[in-house]
Design goal:
Layout: H1 5-20, H2 24-27, H3 30-39, H4 55-58, E1 64-65, H5 76-79, E2 80-81, E3 89-95, E4 98-99, E5 112-116, H6 117-123, H7 125-131, H8 154-162, E6 167-171, E7 180-187, E8 193-203, E9 208-217, E10 223-233, E11 238-246, E12 251-261, E13 266-275, E14 278-287, E15 293-302, E16 307-316, E17 322-331, E18 336-345, E19 352-362, E20 368-377, E21 382-391, H9 395-403, H10 408-424, H11 430-445, E22 455-456
Parallel strand pairs: 1-8, 3-7, 6-8, 7-9, 8-10, 9-11, 10-12, 11-13, 12-14, 13-15, 14-16, 15-17, 16-18, 17-19, 18-20, 19-21
Antiparallel strand pairs: 2-22, 3-4, 5-6
Helix pairs in contact: 3-8, 6-7, 9-10, 10-11
Protein backbone atom coordinates (compact mmCIF):
# COMPACT_ATOMS: atom_id res chain seq x y z
CA UNK A 1 0.00 0.00 0.00
CA UNK A 2 1.29 3.46 -0.87
CA UNK A 3 2.32 5.69 1.99
CA UNK A 4 -0.04 8.34 0.66
CA UNK A 5 -2.94 6.54 2.33
CA UNK A 6 -2.04 7.87 5.78
CA UNK A 7 -2.34 11.42 4.46
CA UNK A 8 -5.65 10.71 2.76
CA UNK A 9 -6.97 9.31 6.03
CA UNK A 10 -5.71 12.37 7.90
CA UNK A 11 -7.38 14.67 5.36
CA UNK A 12 -10.73 12.91 5.65
CA UNK A 13 -10.57 12.92 9.43
CA UNK A 14 -9.57 16.58 9.74
CA UNK A 15 -11.07 18.09 6.60
CA UNK A 16 -13.28 20.50 8.52
CA UNK A 17 -10.32 21.83 10.53
CA UNK A 18 -8.14 22.16 7.41
CA UNK A 19 -10.78 24.19 5.61
CA UNK A 20 -11.62 26.27 8.67
CA UNK A 21 -7.99 27.42 9.01
CA UNK A 22 -7.71 28.21 5.30
CA UNK A 23 -9.56 30.17 2.58
CA UNK A 24 -11.90 29.36 -0.28
CA UNK A 25 -9.31 29.37 -3.14
CA UNK A 26 -7.08 26.97 -1.21
CA UNK A 27 -10.01 24.75 -0.26
CA UNK A 28 -11.44 24.53 -3.77
CA UNK A 29 -8.94 22.02 -5.27
CA UNK A 30 -8.61 19.76 -2.22
CA UNK A 31 -11.27 17.25 -3.24
CA UNK A 32 -9.76 16.85 -6.71
CA UNK A 33 -6.32 16.37 -5.17
CA UNK A 34 -7.69 13.66 -2.87
CA UNK A 35 -9.36 11.93 -5.80
CA UNK A 36 -6.09 11.99 -7.76
CA UNK A 37 -4.02 10.64 -4.86
CA UNK A 38 -6.50 7.84 -4.27
CA UNK A 39 -5.58 6.49 -7.72
CA UNK A 40 -1.93 7.65 -7.95
CA UNK A 41 0.58 6.65 -5.26
CA UNK A 42 3.48 8.86 -4.34
CA UNK A 43 6.17 8.23 -6.94
CA UNK A 44 8.93 5.73 -6.40
CA UNK A 45 11.98 5.03 -8.51
CA UNK A 46 9.91 3.35 -11.21
CA UNK A 47 8.54 6.77 -12.05
CA UNK A 48 10.80 8.21 -14.75
CA UNK A 49 10.87 11.67 -13.24
CA UNK A 50 11.61 10.28 -9.76
CA UNK A 51 14.11 7.74 -11.01
CA UNK A 52 16.71 8.74 -8.42
CA UNK A 53 14.46 9.77 -5.51
CA UNK A 54 11.96 7.51 -3.80
CA UNK A 55 9.32 9.99 -2.66
CA UNK A 56 7.03 7.25 -1.39
CA UNK A 57 9.72 6.09 1.06
CA UNK A 58 10.51 9.66 2.16
CA UNK A 59 6.86 10.21 3.15
CA UNK A 60 6.57 6.89 5.01
CA UNK A 61 7.32 8.11 8.59
CA UNK A 62 4.44 9.38 10.66
CA UNK A 63 5.19 13.11 10.64
CA UNK A 64 3.15 15.51 12.70
CA UNK A 65 1.24 18.40 11.09
CA UNK A 66 0.47 21.81 12.52
CA UNK A 67 -3.25 21.71 11.79
CA UNK A 68 -4.10 24.19 14.56
CA UNK A 69 -1.53 26.75 13.26
CA UNK A 70 0.40 26.92 16.54
CA UNK A 71 3.43 29.21 16.59
CA UNK A 72 6.79 27.50 17.05
CA UNK A 73 8.35 30.94 17.63
CA UNK A 74 6.67 34.05 18.92
CA UNK A 75 8.78 36.51 16.99
CA UNK A 76 11.34 35.15 14.51
CA UNK A 77 12.38 38.71 13.61
CA UNK A 78 13.79 39.05 17.13
CA UNK A 79 15.13 35.52 17.67
CA UNK A 80 16.52 34.88 14.18
CA UNK A 81 18.78 36.81 11.90
CA UNK A 82 19.49 35.94 8.28
CA UNK A 83 21.09 38.67 6.20
CA UNK A 84 23.69 39.44 3.57
CA UNK A 85 26.35 42.05 4.42
CA UNK A 86 26.06 45.25 2.39
CA UNK A 87 22.71 44.16 0.97
CA UNK A 88 19.40 45.72 1.92
CA UNK A 89 16.52 43.26 1.76
CA UNK A 90 12.85 43.18 2.68
CA UNK A 91 12.57 40.22 5.05
CA UNK A 92 9.62 37.88 5.52
CA UNK A 93 9.77 34.87 7.85
CA UNK A 94 7.95 31.58 7.38
CA UNK A 95 8.39 29.24 10.36
CA UNK A 96 7.43 25.70 9.39
CA UNK A 97 4.39 26.61 7.28
CA UNK A 98 3.18 29.64 9.26
CA UNK A 99 3.71 32.99 7.52
CA UNK A 100 4.53 35.74 9.99
CA UNK A 101 3.39 39.36 9.49
CA UNK A 102 5.57 41.21 7.01
CA UNK A 103 7.42 43.79 9.09
CA UNK A 104 8.82 45.63 6.02
CA UNK A 105 5.43 46.25 4.41
CA UNK A 106 5.86 50.02 4.81
CA UNK A 107 9.03 49.87 2.67
CA UNK A 108 7.21 48.42 -0.30
CA UNK A 109 6.65 50.71 -3.29
CA UNK A 110 3.12 51.41 -4.39
CA UNK A 111 1.88 48.63 -6.60
CA UNK A 112 3.58 45.75 -4.73
CA UNK A 113 1.65 43.43 -2.42
CA UNK A 114 3.33 40.93 -0.09
CA UNK A 115 0.95 39.09 2.19
CA UNK A 116 -0.45 35.67 3.04
CA UNK A 117 -2.59 33.71 0.60
CA UNK A 118 -5.49 33.68 3.05
CA UNK A 119 -5.40 37.43 3.47
CA UNK A 120 -5.03 37.93 -0.29
CA UNK A 121 -8.10 35.77 -0.77
CA UNK A 122 -10.02 38.40 1.21
CA UNK A 123 -8.41 41.53 -0.23
CA UNK A 124 -7.94 40.57 -3.89
CA UNK A 125 -9.88 37.33 -4.37
CA UNK A 126 -10.00 37.64 -8.15
CA UNK A 127 -6.20 37.40 -8.40
CA UNK A 128 -5.89 34.39 -6.11
CA UNK A 129 -8.76 32.57 -7.78
CA UNK A 130 -7.31 33.32 -11.20
CA UNK A 131 -3.77 32.10 -10.52
CA UNK A 132 -3.72 29.73 -7.54
CA UNK A 133 -3.11 26.11 -8.56
CA UNK A 134 -3.47 26.91 -12.25
CA UNK A 135 0.05 26.13 -13.44
CA UNK A 136 0.49 23.37 -10.87
CA UNK A 137 -2.66 21.57 -12.01
CA UNK A 138 -2.60 22.20 -15.74
CA UNK A 139 -1.25 19.89 -18.39
CA UNK A 140 0.81 21.54 -21.13
CA UNK A 141 -1.01 23.55 -23.74
CA UNK A 142 -0.76 22.91 -27.49
CA UNK A 143 -0.43 19.15 -27.02
CA UNK A 144 0.81 17.21 -30.03
CA UNK A 145 -0.09 13.63 -30.79
CA UNK A 146 3.59 12.63 -30.74
CA UNK A 147 4.32 14.36 -27.44
CA UNK A 148 3.61 12.70 -24.12
CA UNK A 149 1.53 14.87 -21.88
CA UNK A 150 3.15 15.57 -18.53
CA UNK A 151 1.36 13.83 -15.68
CA UNK A 152 0.32 15.75 -12.63
CA UNK A 153 2.82 15.48 -9.82
CA UNK A 154 1.64 13.53 -6.79
CA UNK A 155 3.79 15.54 -4.35
CA UNK A 156 2.19 18.74 -5.64
CA UNK A 157 -1.24 17.17 -5.21
CA UNK A 158 -0.37 16.17 -1.65
CA UNK A 159 0.72 19.71 -0.92
CA UNK A 160 -2.55 20.99 -2.39
CA UNK A 161 -4.47 18.56 -0.22
CA UNK A 162 -2.89 19.66 3.07
CA UNK A 163 -1.68 23.26 2.66
CA UNK A 164 -3.38 25.85 4.87
CA UNK A 165 -1.73 29.12 3.88
CA UNK A 166 1.18 30.55 1.91
CA UNK A 167 2.92 33.64 0.60
CA UNK A 168 1.34 35.86 -2.03
CA UNK A 169 3.33 38.43 -4.02
CA UNK A 170 1.77 40.66 -6.66
CA UNK A 171 3.68 43.29 -8.64
CA UNK A 172 1.63 45.64 -10.77
CA UNK A 173 2.51 46.61 -14.32
CA UNK A 174 5.62 48.74 -14.69
CA UNK A 175 6.62 48.53 -11.02
CA UNK A 176 10.18 47.71 -10.01
CA UNK A 177 10.96 46.34 -6.55
CA UNK A 178 14.27 48.04 -5.78
CA UNK A 179 15.12 45.97 -2.71
CA UNK A 180 15.41 42.20 -2.85
CA UNK A 181 12.52 40.36 -1.21
CA UNK A 182 14.07 37.82 1.16
CA UNK A 183 11.88 34.99 2.38
CA UNK A 184 13.45 33.01 5.22
CA UNK A 185 12.03 29.51 5.69
CA UNK A 186 12.82 27.99 9.07
CA UNK A 187 11.89 24.51 10.26
CA UNK A 188 11.68 24.59 14.05
CA UNK A 189 9.91 22.12 16.33
CA UNK A 190 10.41 19.80 19.30
CA UNK A 191 8.92 16.96 17.29
CA UNK A 192 9.29 15.49 13.82
CA UNK A 193 7.15 17.71 11.64
CA UNK A 194 5.79 17.95 8.12
CA UNK A 195 5.28 21.43 6.67
CA UNK A 196 3.38 22.24 3.49
CA UNK A 197 4.22 25.62 2.01
CA UNK A 198 2.84 27.53 -0.94
CA UNK A 199 4.15 30.55 -2.86
CA UNK A 200 2.18 32.42 -5.48
CA UNK A 201 4.04 35.15 -7.39
CA UNK A 202 2.34 37.24 -10.07
CA UNK A 203 4.29 39.87 -12.03
CA UNK A 204 2.36 42.02 -14.46
CA UNK A 205 3.73 43.62 -17.65
CA UNK A 206 7.19 45.24 -17.30
CA UNK A 207 7.41 44.39 -13.58
CA UNK A 208 10.82 43.65 -12.09
CA UNK A 209 11.89 42.00 -8.84
CA UNK A 210 14.63 39.94 -7.19
CA UNK A 211 13.93 37.21 -4.62
CA UNK A 212 16.24 35.54 -2.11
CA UNK A 213 14.85 32.34 -0.58
CA UNK A 214 16.77 30.97 2.41
CA UNK A 215 16.08 27.54 3.88
CA UNK A 216 17.23 26.67 7.42
CA UNK A 217 16.33 23.97 9.94
CA UNK A 218 16.96 23.31 13.62
CA UNK A 219 19.16 20.35 14.48
CA UNK A 220 17.97 17.29 16.35
CA UNK A 221 14.58 16.68 14.72
CA UNK A 222 13.51 15.31 11.40
CA UNK A 223 11.59 17.69 9.13
CA UNK A 224 9.73 16.97 5.92
CA UNK A 225 8.81 19.94 3.76
CA UNK A 226 6.75 20.19 0.61
CA UNK A 227 6.84 23.52 -1.18
CA UNK A 228 4.94 24.45 -4.31
CA UNK A 229 5.81 27.72 -6.02
CA UNK A 230 3.84 29.18 -8.91
CA UNK A 231 5.39 32.04 -10.87
CA UNK A 232 3.52 34.01 -13.54
CA UNK A 233 5.52 36.49 -15.59
CA UNK A 234 3.54 38.71 -17.96
CA UNK A 235 4.96 40.44 -21.04
CA UNK A 236 8.47 41.84 -20.45
CA UNK A 237 8.42 41.03 -16.73
CA UNK A 238 11.84 40.27 -15.24
CA UNK A 239 12.16 38.06 -12.14
CA UNK A 240 15.34 36.69 -10.57
CA UNK A 241 15.19 34.00 -7.88
CA UNK A 242 18.15 33.01 -5.71
CA UNK A 243 17.75 30.15 -3.26
CA UNK A 244 20.16 28.97 -0.58
CA UNK A 245 19.64 25.69 1.26
CA UNK A 246 21.41 25.08 4.55
CA UNK A 247 19.48 22.61 6.66
CA UNK A 248 20.40 19.36 8.41
CA UNK A 249 21.28 15.76 7.45
CA UNK A 250 17.90 14.49 8.75
CA UNK A 251 15.94 17.08 6.75
CA UNK A 252 13.88 16.18 3.66
CA UNK A 253 12.67 18.82 1.23
CA UNK A 254 10.54 18.54 -1.91
CA UNK A 255 10.28 21.80 -3.83
CA UNK A 256 8.18 21.98 -7.00
CA UNK A 257 8.33 25.16 -9.06
CA UNK A 258 5.94 26.01 -11.88
CA UNK A 259 6.68 28.93 -14.18
CA UNK A 260 4.53 30.45 -16.93
CA UNK A 261 6.15 33.14 -19.07
CA UNK A 262 4.64 35.48 -21.62
CA UNK A 263 6.26 37.45 -24.45
CA UNK A 264 9.79 38.81 -23.84
CA UNK A 265 9.65 37.97 -20.15
CA UNK A 266 12.78 36.82 -18.33
CA UNK A 267 12.87 34.46 -15.36
CA UNK A 268 16.05 33.12 -13.77
CA UNK A 269 16.08 30.42 -11.08
CA UNK A 270 19.39 30.01 -9.24
CA UNK A 271 19.74 27.45 -6.47
CA UNK A 272 22.67 26.54 -4.22
CA UNK A 273 22.54 23.57 -1.85
CA UNK A 274 25.27 23.80 0.80
CA UNK A 275 24.00 21.47 3.53
CA UNK A 276 20.99 19.19 3.33
CA UNK A 277 19.71 15.68 3.92
CA UNK A 278 17.39 14.77 1.07
CA UNK A 279 16.61 17.63 -1.30
CA UNK A 280 14.63 17.38 -4.49
CA UNK A 281 13.75 20.32 -6.72
CA UNK A 282 11.47 20.02 -9.72
CA UNK A 283 11.06 22.91 -12.16
CA UNK A 284 8.42 23.00 -14.88
CA UNK A 285 8.77 26.14 -16.99
CA UNK A 286 6.47 26.93 -19.92
CA UNK A 287 7.52 29.60 -22.40
CA UNK A 288 4.17 30.71 -23.77
CA UNK A 289 5.01 34.08 -25.34
CA UNK A 290 7.32 34.97 -28.20
CA UNK A 291 10.84 35.87 -27.06
CA UNK A 292 10.55 34.57 -23.48
CA UNK A 293 13.82 33.66 -21.74
CA UNK A 294 14.29 31.15 -18.91
CA UNK A 295 17.58 30.58 -17.06
CA UNK A 296 17.97 27.70 -14.59
CA UNK A 297 21.21 27.38 -12.62
CA UNK A 298 22.28 25.23 -9.72
CA UNK A 299 25.25 24.30 -7.56
CA UNK A 300 25.41 21.41 -5.12
CA UNK A 301 28.07 20.66 -2.51
CA UNK A 302 27.35 17.37 -0.78
CA UNK A 303 29.11 14.87 1.46
CA UNK A 304 28.23 12.23 4.03
CA UNK A 305 25.04 10.52 2.87
CA UNK A 306 23.34 13.60 1.50
CA UNK A 307 21.11 13.24 -1.53
CA UNK A 308 20.24 16.03 -3.98
CA UNK A 309 18.06 15.72 -7.08
CA UNK A 310 17.24 18.42 -9.64
CA UNK A 311 14.65 17.65 -12.31
CA UNK A 312 14.09 20.40 -14.88
CA UNK A 313 11.61 20.64 -17.76
CA UNK A 314 11.58 23.71 -20.01
CA UNK A 315 8.65 23.61 -22.43
CA UNK A 316 9.16 25.83 -25.49
CA UNK A 317 5.63 26.51 -26.70
CA UNK A 318 6.15 29.86 -28.46
CA UNK A 319 8.75 30.74 -31.06
CA UNK A 320 12.00 32.68 -30.63
CA UNK A 321 12.39 31.73 -26.97
CA UNK A 322 15.66 30.98 -25.19
CA UNK A 323 16.57 28.73 -22.28
CA UNK A 324 19.80 27.88 -20.52
CA UNK A 325 20.58 25.24 -17.88
CA UNK A 326 23.85 25.18 -15.95
CA UNK A 327 24.26 22.77 -13.02
CA UNK A 328 27.48 21.89 -11.23
CA UNK A 329 27.91 19.34 -8.44
CA UNK A 330 30.84 18.59 -6.13
CA UNK A 331 30.28 15.33 -4.25
CA UNK A 332 32.27 13.80 -1.41
CA UNK A 333 31.73 10.94 1.03
CA UNK A 334 28.84 8.63 0.11
CA UNK A 335 26.67 11.44 -1.23
CA UNK A 336 24.46 10.95 -4.25
CA UNK A 337 23.11 13.52 -6.68
CA UNK A 338 21.07 13.57 -9.85
CA UNK A 339 20.42 16.03 -12.64
CA UNK A 340 17.67 15.47 -15.17
CA UNK A 341 17.17 18.33 -17.62
CA UNK A 342 14.77 18.20 -20.52
CA UNK A 343 14.10 20.80 -23.18
CA UNK A 344 10.89 20.23 -25.11
CA UNK A 345 10.50 22.20 -28.35
CA UNK A 346 6.94 21.99 -29.62
CA UNK A 347 5.77 22.22 -33.22
CA UNK A 348 5.72 25.87 -34.21
CA UNK A 349 8.36 26.88 -31.66
CA UNK A 350 10.77 27.89 -34.40
CA UNK A 351 13.93 29.91 -33.76
CA UNK A 352 14.37 28.27 -30.35
CA UNK A 353 17.77 28.71 -28.75
CA UNK A 354 18.60 26.34 -25.89
CA UNK A 355 21.71 25.17 -24.06
CA UNK A 356 22.25 22.62 -21.28
CA UNK A 357 25.40 21.90 -19.31
CA UNK A 358 25.76 19.46 -16.42
CA UNK A 359 29.27 19.17 -14.93
CA UNK A 360 30.12 17.04 -11.92
CA UNK A 361 33.10 16.33 -9.68
CA UNK A 362 33.23 13.17 -7.58
CA UNK A 363 35.86 13.87 -4.95
CA UNK A 364 35.27 10.53 -3.21
CA UNK A 365 35.24 7.12 -4.92
CA UNK A 366 32.02 6.36 -3.03
CA UNK A 367 30.12 9.41 -4.31
CA UNK A 368 27.55 8.87 -7.05
CA UNK A 369 26.08 11.22 -9.64
CA UNK A 370 23.46 10.64 -12.32
CA UNK A 371 23.29 13.12 -15.19
CA UNK A 372 20.61 12.99 -17.86
CA UNK A 373 20.34 15.97 -20.24
CA UNK A 374 17.61 15.52 -22.85
CA UNK A 375 16.28 17.23 -25.96
CA UNK A 376 12.90 16.55 -27.55
CA UNK A 377 12.44 18.66 -30.66
CA UNK A 378 9.48 18.93 -33.03
CA UNK A 379 10.61 22.03 -34.95
CA UNK A 380 13.32 22.34 -37.59
CA UNK A 381 14.62 25.91 -37.19
CA UNK A 382 16.28 25.57 -33.78
CA UNK A 383 19.70 25.75 -32.14
CA UNK A 384 19.80 23.35 -29.21
CA UNK A 385 22.72 21.58 -27.57
CA UNK A 386 23.53 19.79 -24.35
CA UNK A 387 26.57 18.42 -22.57
CA UNK A 388 27.39 16.39 -19.49
CA UNK A 389 30.67 15.59 -17.76
CA UNK A 390 31.50 13.49 -14.71
CA UNK A 391 35.03 13.27 -13.41
CA UNK A 392 37.61 13.90 -10.73
CA UNK A 393 39.77 16.90 -9.97
CA UNK A 394 42.25 17.78 -12.69
CA UNK A 395 45.45 16.14 -11.47
CA UNK A 396 47.55 18.29 -13.80
CA UNK A 397 46.09 21.48 -12.35
CA UNK A 398 46.52 20.07 -8.84
CA UNK A 399 50.18 19.30 -9.52
CA UNK A 400 50.70 22.78 -10.98
CA UNK A 401 49.42 24.41 -7.79
CA UNK A 402 51.42 22.12 -5.51
CA UNK A 403 54.62 22.87 -7.44
CA UNK A 404 54.06 26.50 -6.59
CA UNK A 405 54.07 25.85 -2.89
CA UNK A 406 50.34 25.55 -2.28
CA UNK A 407 49.49 22.71 0.15
CA UNK A 408 47.46 19.89 -1.35
CA UNK A 409 44.37 20.54 0.80
CA UNK A 410 44.36 24.23 -0.14
CA UNK A 411 44.97 23.41 -3.81
CA UNK A 412 41.99 21.06 -3.85
CA UNK A 413 39.84 23.73 -2.23
CA UNK A 414 40.89 26.30 -4.85
CA UNK A 415 40.09 23.95 -7.73
CA UNK A 416 36.70 23.01 -6.30
CA UNK A 417 35.79 26.64 -5.71
CA UNK A 418 36.86 27.54 -9.24
CA UNK A 419 34.68 24.73 -10.55
CA UNK A 420 31.59 26.13 -8.79
CA UNK A 421 32.44 29.71 -9.72
CA UNK A 422 30.68 29.52 -13.10
CA UNK A 423 27.41 29.20 -11.23
CA UNK A 424 28.23 32.00 -8.80
CA UNK A 425 28.96 34.35 -11.68
CA UNK A 426 25.33 34.06 -12.77
CA UNK A 427 24.31 35.90 -9.58
CA UNK A 428 23.66 39.48 -10.66
CA UNK A 429 23.70 41.06 -7.18
CA UNK A 430 27.31 41.84 -6.22
CA UNK A 431 26.89 41.61 -2.44
CA UNK A 432 25.00 38.34 -2.70
CA UNK A 433 27.55 36.86 -5.08
CA UNK A 434 30.38 37.71 -2.68
CA UNK A 435 28.48 36.26 0.26
CA UNK A 436 27.72 33.03 -1.59
CA UNK A 437 31.34 32.74 -2.64
CA UNK A 438 32.39 33.04 1.01
CA UNK A 439 29.86 30.42 2.13
CA UNK A 440 30.98 28.04 -0.61
CA UNK A 441 34.58 28.41 0.56
CA UNK A 442 33.61 27.76 4.18
CA UNK A 443 31.65 24.71 3.08
CA UNK A 444 34.64 23.26 1.26
CA UNK A 445 36.83 23.94 4.30
CA UNK A 446 34.39 22.03 6.48
CA UNK A 447 33.84 25.13 8.63
CA UNK A 448 30.22 25.82 7.68
CA UNK A 449 27.79 24.61 10.30
CA UNK A 450 25.38 27.50 10.17
CA UNK A 451 25.61 30.65 8.13
CA UNK A 452 27.76 32.87 10.35
CA UNK A 453 25.44 35.79 9.73
CA UNK A 454 22.40 33.77 10.83
CA UNK A 455 21.36 33.28 14.43
CA UNK A 456 18.53 31.33 15.99
CA UNK A 457 17.93 30.96 19.71
Amino acid sequence: MSNVQQYLDLYREHRELLEQKSSAPLNAPRAAAAEYLADHPLPGKRNERYKYTDADAAFAPNFGLNLHRALALRNPYASCHCSVPDMSTLVLYVVNDVVFPFRDADRLPEGVTVTTLNRAAEECPELVERYYHRAAAAEPANAHKHIDRVERDAVTQLNTLLVQDGVFVHIEAGVQLEHTLQIVFLSSSRHVLMSNRRLLIVAEEDAKADFLLCEHADAGHGFLTTQVTEVYAADRACLNFYSLEETQPDNARFSNIYVEQQAESRVSLNGIALVTGLSRTMINARLLGVGADCQTTGAVIADGRQQVDNSILVDHVAEACTSDMLFKYVLDGESEAAFSGKVLVRPGAQRTLSHQNSANLCVSPDARVHSQPMLEIYADDVRCNHGSTIGKLDETALLYLRQRGIPEKEARLLLQHAFINDVLQRVQIDALRERLSYLVEMRFRGELRHCKNCRHH
